[in-house]
Amino acid sequence: MPYLVTACQGLLAVVLLVSATSKLRSGQALRVLAGSLAAMRLVPPRWAEPVAAVLAVAEAVAVVLLLIPATRRVGFGAAAALLAVLAAGVAVVLARGTAQPCRCFGASATPLGRRHLVRNVVLCLAAFAGLVGPAGPAVPAGTLLALLAGAVAGLLVTVLDDIVALLTPMSRTDLSKEMSRWRT
């Protein structure tokens, strides 16, 4: 079981690192997130920028806590709480029927959907598994492999919208638009 905890650690560290980095890379990225939060009506417009900043910093802090062995459990708890709040936010947006893009990992045109809710719930469950899972003795090679597997899974999670877009068949209209764009 310690390998499952380690895989969850790698998964969450990568997902939260990419998410925090995409938001903190520039003031513009943070303002875009704030605008998105306000457009989703999750926070009043005047609170959107401070909430966006707190969200991004909380993600970064959770990453640091996850990566330090002495604070790993606290990191899992912080990640679980953060992901539960994010899942609740997505659920509210979906219940309202608001078609706003997901700014989870930076600029994306993909509107929030059920897959984003499922993703956040699964990540929250991974954080909870890491929080309650046993941390016992482990073989270093197994630990490294589990961490790597979790990190790869985390990278896949961060590009999930892109993967879905690649695997979704295009309509004839979309295909025609795309073809004409390449011709010019």
From TrEMBL:
Residues 1-132 form the Methylamine utilisation protein MauE domain. The keyword Transmembrane applies. It is found in: Membrane. One of its GO terms (biological process) is methylamine metabolic process. Keywords: Membrane, Transmembrane, Transmembrane helix. Its main location: membrane. Transmembrane segments: none annotated. It is a multi-pass membrane protein. GO terms for cellular component: membrane. This is Methylamine utilization protein MauE. It comes from Micromonospora sagamiensis.
